[in-house]
Amino acid sequence: MGLNEMTERVGVEFLHEWLLEFARVVKANKDLLTSLDAAVGDADHGINMDRGMTAVLANQEANPPGDPAGLLKQTGVTLVSSVGGASGPLYGTFFLRMATAAAEHADGLDAAAFAQALRAGIGGVVQRGKAEPGDKTMYDALAPAAQALEDALAAGAPLTDALQQAAKAADQGRDGTTGMRARKGRASYLGERSVGHQDPGATSAALLIASAAASATKIIH
Ligand code: ADP
Ligand code: MG
């Protein structure tokens, strides 16, 4: 195994850093997420995500899992059980599906396995929420991110660079939701009046991918 492969492994250390960073940026953007949700929903997305990620970190500290699948599963279970609203079950399912994909990689995931796990997580979001591209949901940030990650890895980029590309694509996807008419979740009740507002869930999803990129830069050298 080459040095690059050795150092590109996504293990518990990376996942811990990712969740720590996501919790940090969710807290820093709590008011933004809630005000975006005030425009198209019920003004609780920042509160929901902050409560969920605070619980995730608390559980992680009280009962630190020893392998990637365990950490991802604990995260998913915590989000499902601590967050009311659509985003809890959706993000929870995302991490639970990532956990299932990570189960056979107790020593860490290489870049390809991590991309597959991300895909599996997004597949869970779709299965649970039935979102399609353009419905103005978190899926509109997550799907382009997964695509960009896969494309960059296929072109030979190291995982850290590929995650930077994914974060860029997630930001663009998030920005794209502003012009969309919501067809899922509370925002869909607004119909045409949802157009012109950035989707809160796509905004938190872009933070999730940006956090992965930031953690990779820190952990995977
Ligand atoms: P709630 O809508 O129950 O108050 P939140 O405010 O926490 O929950 O989350 C709202 C976000 O959840 C939306 O901005 C959207 O991105 C996402 N969302 C809602 N329904 C779906 C769905 N069916 N599929 C994917 N994402 C969804
Ligand atoms: Mg809401």
From TrEMBL:
<keyword id="KW-0808">Transferase</keyword>
<dbReference type="InterPro" id="IPR012737">
    <property type="entry name" value="DhaK_L_YcgS"/>
</dbReference>
<dbReference type="GO" id="GO:0016301">
    <property type="term" value="F:kinase activity"/>
</dbReference>
<protein>
    <submittedName>
        <fullName>Dihydroxyacetone kinase subunit DhaL</fullName>
    </submittedName>
</protein>
<dbReference type="InterPro" id="IPR036117">
    <property type="entry name" value="DhaL_dom_sf"/>
</dbReference>
<dbReference type="InterPro" id="IPR004007">
    <property type="entry name" value="DhaL_dom"/>
</dbReference>
<dbReference type="Pfam" id="PF02734">
    <property type="entry name" value="Dak2"/>
</dbReference>
<keyword id="KW-0418">Kinase</keyword>
<dbReference type="InterPro" id="IPR050861">
    <property type="entry name" value="Dihydroxyacetone_Kinase"/>
</dbReference>
<feature type="domain" description="DhaL">
    <location>
        <begin position="13"/>
        <end position="214"/>
    </location>
</feature>
